Each structure stands twice: as C-alpha cells, then as structure tokens.
Amino acid sequence: xxxxxxxxxxLRYLLDExxxxxxxxxxADPGEKRRLxxxxxxxxxxxxxxxxxxxxxxTYLQEELRRKGVTRLDGLTPVQPGLYLWQGDxxxxxxxxxxxxxxxxxxxxxxxxxxxxxxxxxTAAGVRLRLECTRMMALxxxxxxxxxARITNAHNLPCKYVLHTVGPIIxxxxxxxxxxxxxxxxxxxxxxxxxxxxxxxxxxxxxxxEFHFPGELAAQIAIQTVRAWQRQNPDxxxxxxNVFKDSDREIYRRLLR
Length: 257
What we know:
The protein is of the alpha/beta class. Helix content is about 45%, strand content about 10%. It contains eight helices and six strands. A six-stranded mixed β-sheet has the order 1-6-5-2-4-3, sandwiched between helices. The longest helix is centred in the C-terminal third of the chain and has 20 residues, at about 175-195. Keywords: Hydrolase.
C-alpha cells in the first residue's frame, strides 16, 4: 500500500465515524488530503478506535518520519558540556525524551492544524498518544496545574518518551510566581526523566508563543534552571534546547556563549 492509499484509508475511516461527514468525497490534492487528515485527528475525541486504523496510521507516520529524516544527539555539537542548541522540528529528534508544552487538559490541541507544539507532537505521534493521555488523566481527574510534569510513551515519534508540562500563562507583567512556575516546569521534567532512566531531554520554549511568556526572560530561566539541575545531578542528563524561530535561536545562542 502506498502512502496515498494509506491516507485515503485513514480519511475514509475518520469521515465515516461521524454522521455529518460520512460519505464526503476525498480531496484530490495530496496536500489537502494531508490537511484534512490532520484536522480530523486534531478534533477527534479520545474514543475507542479500530485496530486496523491504528496499524495503518503507524505505518503512515513512520514512513513520513523516514522521509523527513531523524536527527540524533551524536550528530549535534554541544555549545557547553551537556548543553546543546538545535533549531528544527522537535518531532524528528531522537532524544530519550522531548518536552511538550501542553495545555491544562493534557489531551493535546483540539484546534485543527494549529501551529502550537502540542498540536505538532500529537499529530506526529498519532492517535495513540491522545488515548494514552486520556488514560493517564483518568487516574487524577481535573485540570493539570502548571509547573509539574507527566510522562507518556512517544508512539510514532523517534524519541522514547514525551514529557508533558503546563507552563504559566502571562496576562500582563511577569510575576515572581510566573518565574517560579516556569522554573518548576524544567526541574519537574528533568526529575521525571531521570526517574525513567533518560540520558537526554529536548526542551521546547515552554510558555512562550501562545502563553505569552517573554522569550528572553523564558530563555534565561530555562538555562539557569537546567544548569543548576545539572550541577546537582552531574553526568545524569544532557539537555537540548530546541528552538523553531530564528529569534529564539539568537537569544539562546547569545545566552549560552
């Protein structure tokens, strides 16, 4: 089965799940097909799903990852001992764990094709990740408070685990509590990763972007917190600061000199 055929199978299954979309014609354009599939996956509630769909999705996503290419830690050069700076797609990074800047529901982003990292990670991992997050949250119902971390398997991502953390949302001026909560996100992720035997963790820019934490200050807190943790836990975990935007790369590059 080709990638296009797999995509058609997945689309037909997802469309036929709902009365309002059953029988709709599939787009002819491959890009539109991909966008429709992502939208349907993004909005799909964490309900039971057919095993054949999951196996098709696994094969499809693994082939997509192969085409994009995987970045491994041994191919990167540290900027300081135990610290790396890498600009790229975190869903292609083969660290032991990557960090997801989650929302308080901890089930992924439900906005179709949204540009946040939560959406990107759940899309690339596949439906299995939302199902696992649902089981995880059922053990402690309610919204996840900021500053903590939870861990799941990575499913179709090249890493082993995903660390989910909720950062503080900034509504006005950054407060001391906001700073403390952001620092706690980094410490909680590292503590949790260490307990699961991880030797490398890739952090996204937690709380920036949609959560409006100023990028420069967020990077300062990230670097200070990670360095302090590494001093207290020498030779335990190497850390990759993953950035997507050029402006964040320049901030981290300057601060890590």
